[in-house]
Each structure stands twice: as structure tokens, then as C-alpha cells.
Amino acid sequence: MTSNIADHRKWLKERTIGSLTRFSKWRKGIKIGLVIGGGFIAAIMGASANLVEADHKWLLYSFQIFGGVLVLVGGGVLEIVDEGAADAIERADALADLVDERDRQIADLGVDFEWFTRLYSTAAALREVVEGVLVAGAGDEDEQRRRFGMMLDIVVSEKDILFGMNADRWNFAIYIYSFQRELLQCVVCRRPMRVEEMAPHRSWKPGEGHVGIAFQTRREIVAGDTSGPEARALFDGPDPNRREEDLARYRSIASIPIGASADEIIGVVVATSDVPGRFWIRRGEDERASDPVEPLRILANALAMVAKIADLQCERTEAIES
């Protein structure tokens, strides 16, 4: 439907400008004809006046005046009309561009509205999970892992709208810090292929790679393109964890710390894509209303709340038992 409207608008613009252009050429032709024709008549009549008797010269002078009028009309009056036609062409072209710009803005507003709608529905779904934990309890470690996976699925299911991912080689994962092993371990992972999800995943020490840096510094690590030398120095992992495919596979990265506060960071939410520009930090001057990092922030906050509820319930149980 949108394509048909755009094609019709393009056709109408071409027809309008084409008609005005042909009209302008027609006007120019008449102007040239009047000037040349009038000048020719005036010249012929002026030369003929010298060849006839004085009693008949008035008729030739009349035709000479008529030729002068034609020259005046062609050179003066039609010049104004011709300039008006050129202005009309310019105005028609400008108006058509304004219509195209307005339609583009309307289309952008539609995209933004859909993004905000999906973001709101995602946040609402995650809130329901948190509220469910408050009612049913945190459960054991396996139940917690299953719940984390369900929460990650809520975000991944909207990846096409929230992150613009289509045929990307994407990756979403949740890393939780193990005090026993002193490593950030992947507890949940989602990738396009199930076999990749089930494969062994790398673990990271605090400060290693973008996962470890986000955890250690307690701040978001976001890069739209990791192919530059400075970015590679930051996002490249140590030798045991480095793989040849990393440079091509993880071109755009977002690592968001999970924690109820800056002093209670328990892990990191990670999202990556092989397409540059999927993630960026939105600035105040950014014309885009969408923010691809915001859904990850909401997920990280929801995970932190679930983990905090579980800790509080465990402390309560231990207090009761003691």
C-alpha cells in the first residue's frame, strides 16, 4: 500500500513538472515567433513605404506599428509569463519535496511509536516475572536459571523491532559471577542456532574482555563497531579466550552490569551482532528516538531485582531456621 502511494506520488510529480516544462517551452516558442515575426513585418513594411505613394503609406505604417506591437508583446509581456512558468516549476518541485519530507517524518514517527510500544510491552512482561517471584518464591538454582532464560527470551523475541536485527548473527547472554571460581560464567545464552546455544561458553575474569570490563568497572560497555584498533584493544580477550572469528562475529557489542546498586553487581547482560551499528549510546542531539541499549538496561534491572528477592528470601529462611 505504502509503495503504491509512493509510486503514485512520484508519477504525479513527474507529470506536473513535465507539463509545466512543456508549457514553458511552448511559451518560449511563441515569444521567439512573435519577436522574429513582428520584427520581420516591421522591417518589410518600413522598406516598402519608400516604394509607394504618400497616400498609401499609412497602411504600411499601420502594419509596421502592428509588427512593433508583436515584438513588444513577445519581448515584454510573455517574458513575465515565462518567468512565472519557471517559478511554478520551482514551486511545484519544492512542494513535492516538502510532501516527501513530511511523509518520511510520518513514517519515522510510526517506527518510533512501534519501538516504544514494544519496549513498554517488554518491560511489562519482565515486571510480571518479578512480581511472580515475589508471590511464588525464588526456588532453587535450576529454577533461577530457568527464570533467567525466560526473561532473556522476552527480550530476544522482540529483537527485530527493539534492535533492528533480522539476518544478523546475534548473541544474547547472561553472565553471573561465581565467587567460588572467581569467574563470570554464562548461565543463559540465546543464539540463532540451538547447537551454538548448547556449546561450551567462555568464562571471563573481572577486567577481561568486554564482559569482565563491564563487571569490574560497573559501567556499560557499548560499541557500534569493534573493528577499530582502539576498540579491539578494549574488547579483545586474553589469549586463552581469543578466537579468530571474534572480529567478524562481534562487530557491535553491548555489555550491561546487573545489580540492584553499583555496590551489588552480580553479573553482566551481553548482546552482540555481526552487523556494525546495532548498538550505540544515545546522545541528547541524536535524532533517533529509539535506544537499542535501553531494553538491555530494563532486563538487567529486572534480573537484579529477581536475584535480590532470592537473596532476601534465603536470608529470611536461614533466619527462621536458626
UniProtKB/TrEMBL annotation:
Matches recorded under Gene3D superfamilies: 3.30.450.40
Domain of life per record: Bacteria
Transmembrane segments: 32-52, 58-81
Alphabetically ordered keywords of this record: Membrane, Transmembrane, Transmembrane helix
Family matches, as SUPFAM superfamilies: GAF domain-like
Protein name from the UniProt record: GAF domain-containing protein
